[in-house]
Amino acid sequence: MMEFWVANPLIEMIFGIVSFVGVLVLGWANLMVEPPKTAVAIPAELNVWERHRLRQSQKKEG
Q1: CB crowding 8-18: b at 16 or more within 10 Å, else e
Q2: Which of 18, 27, 50, 54 is 20 to 30 A from 12 (CA-CA)?
Q3: How far from 45 is each of 27, 49, 57, CA to CA, in Å?
Q4: What tens digit of pLDDT does each residue of 50-61 get?
Q5: Residues 6 or more apart from 9 whose CB is under 8 A from it?
Q6: Alpha carbon distance 47, 43 (integer Å)
Q7: What is the pTM of this model?
């Protein structure tokens, strides 16, 4: 039973490194993927409510 307690921090460290690297890889892959061409650019000068309305009208059309 003692071996388990000795190995436990090592196992936790390995899992931590693997999950950290996994998050980095997924984030990098997410940045590498191009956004879909069907996305419509919404002008930044519209206020939030107008943008929301525009988005809703696009959902109804598409």
Answers
A1: eeeeeeeeeee
A2: 27
A3: 29, 11, 18
A4: 777 777 777 776
A5: none
A6: 9
A7: 0.40
